[in-house]
Amino acid sequence: MEQAQKTDVIVTEGVTKVYEADGIPVNALNGIDLTIQSGEFTALVGPSGSGKTTFLNIISGLDAPTEGKVWLAGKVLSEMSGNELSDFRRDNIGFIFQAYNLIPVLTVEENVEYIMLLAGVPKAERHERVIAMLETVGLKGVADRKPTQLSGGQQQRVAIARAMVSEPEIILADEPTANLDSKTGADLLEMMRHLNAETGMTFIFSTHDPMVMESATRLITLRDGRVDTDETK
Amino acid sequence: MIPKIAFRNIFRQKRRTILTALAMIVGFTLLSLTIGLSDGAYGNIIAMFTRNRIGHIQVHREGYLDKPSLYKTIDNASAVGEAIQRIAGVEAWTPRVYGAGLGSVGEKSTAVQVIGVDVARETEATHFDQKVVEGSTLSETPSHEAVIGKGLAKIVSAAVGSEIVIVSQGADGSIANDLYKIVGIAESGDDITDRVACYLHIEDTQELLVLEGRVHEIVVIVSNINRVDKITGTIETQLNDPTLDVAPWQEVAKSFYRAMRTDQQGDAISRLVIMLIVAIGVLNTVLMSVLERTREYGVLKAVGTKPVQIFWLVVCEVVIIALGSICVGALLGALANYLFSIYGITYPEEITYGGMKLKTLYAEVNVRCLVIPAITVMLSAAVVSLFPAIKAARIMPAKAMRTH
How far is residue A199 from each of residues A78, A169, A193, B5, B183, measured CA to CA in Å? Predict the structure, then answer.
C-alpha cells in the first residue's frame, strides 16, 4: 500500500498540568512540546506518575491543561466549547481504556455502534459496519451479549471495535493490555498494528508493557512530567 | 439511544428506581387523597348548603338580592316556575315568601323571619320535611300552622302544640297579625336561621302579608351542580324578563362562597408540603444515582456524547420513573378516594362549617384528584432532576473516569 503523506495530527506547546492534591499543588506535566504525525504507532512510556495518562487526557480534550496549547487535527482544543469538544472527539478520536469502560446497559453491538449513532450514521450502515468490525476483532457471534457476559479480553476487543468502527483519525489507548493475559494482549496488539498498517490510523499508547514498546514505531519516555527521551525506530 | 440507555438504567438499579418511584407514588397518592377529601368536604358542604337551604339557582325581582324588600315580588310565580321546570337539567323548583315580624308565644316575644313555603314543592326541592325534628311538617293546604326553628323555640319557650302570634306589616300598609299553631320544630343545620325561622304555608303567608299570590323568590334545584352556570344562563334566556334576576348559588351566598374559596386556597399549603417531600426524596435518589455513575458519564462524554445529551439522559430517566409512578399513583389515588367516598372518615366530634354540621368526611373521585398530582409529580420530578442533570453534564471526563 502506498504510504499517505504524513501530517501533524497532534501538536503540543508548553503543556503543563498542575493538580491540587490535599491542597498541595502537584505538577503532573511540566511544559511538554511534542508533535505526533499521522500514521504513527507511538508508545508513551515511563514510570507510574510520570504523566502518561494525563498527557493522553489533555491531547484528547478530556482534561484541560493548566498552561500551554494543544492542536489536534489543526484545531486548538482550548478554544472549543463543551459540545464542540464532544463532537470533535466523536469524529476524530477513538479511545481504548485500561478498564474497557463499556456502557454496561448496552449490548456489544450497541456499544460498538454508539459513536456512529451519535454521528447520525443510518441504521443499516451502522449494523453492517458493527458486524464487520466485530469480525475483525474476533468477536463474531457475541453482538447481543452484555459486556458483563464477556471475558476481560473480549471486553477489550469490544472497546477496540468501538474505538475504531467510525474510522477516527487518532486512536488513544491508555494501558490497553494491562488487564489482559499476555496471549490476549499480544493478539490485540497485533490486530492494532495490522489496522495501523492497513488504515493509516494514528495510534498513541500509554504503556508499561514491553510488548507494546516493542511494536511501537516511536517511543516517548516521560519522567516527572517531562519528555525524557523520544526515539523513532 | 438516549431514551434506550435511560430505560435500561432504570431497570439496572432496581432498588434505587423503586425508592425513587415510591417517593413519587406515595406523594401522588397523598396529594390525590388530599384533593379528593378536600373536594369531597367542600362538595358536601356546598350540597348541604344549596340543596337544603338556598337551592342551586334563585330567581328574584330585579335588585331583591342587593336590597330585599316586601314589595319586590314575582307576580306570576307559577308561570315562571313552570317555564323553569321545562328546562333540561332542572330537577325541581319552589316559591318562597319572606317577611320580617315579631313572634310571640305566651309572654315571650322575639324577632322572627317568616318564610312562606309551598310545602309539597319545598319538600321535593329542599327536603323540608327532613328539617322537622320534632312534631310534624306543615300541611299541604293552608291551615294556620307553623313550624319554628329550634333556636326560636328555645327563645320563646315554645313547644309543639303552642300557639305563636306573628305581627308584621302587610304589603298594603296595614298591620298584619295572626295566630298559628306550632306543629313542628325544625333544625336546618344553621343555628342563626334556626333562631329566627318561622315557616308558614305560602298561602297563609301571602294572606298575612297581603301579597295576593305574589312571591319573593323561586328556588331552583338542578340535577348536576356543576352545570349551574350553564342552566342559569338558559333560565335567563328562556324567561327573557329584564325585571327578573337569575342568580347561581355562588352569587346568592357571596360571602359564604368567598370564605370557602379562601379556605380551599389554604389547602395549597398542605399540597406544597407534600410536593416538597416528594421533590426532596426524588432529588436525593437521583443525586445518588448520578454520583454513583460519574465514571459512566465520563465515558459517555469521552466517546463523544455531548453535555446536553448527558443532561437529557438524566432528565429522561427521572421522567420515565415519574410516568410509571403517575400510572401506579393514579390507580392507588383513585382507589383510596373511591373507598373514602363510600366509607368516609367519621369526625371524632361533629364539626360546624358555615353554620352546617358535619359528621363524616367523604372523598370525591374527580379528574382534579388525578390531574393535579400528575402535573405536580411530573413537574417536581423534572425540576429536581435539573440539578443532577446539570451536574452530570458538566462532568470533566478525565476526572470522572478516575472515580470508582
Answer: 29, 9, 10, 32, 109
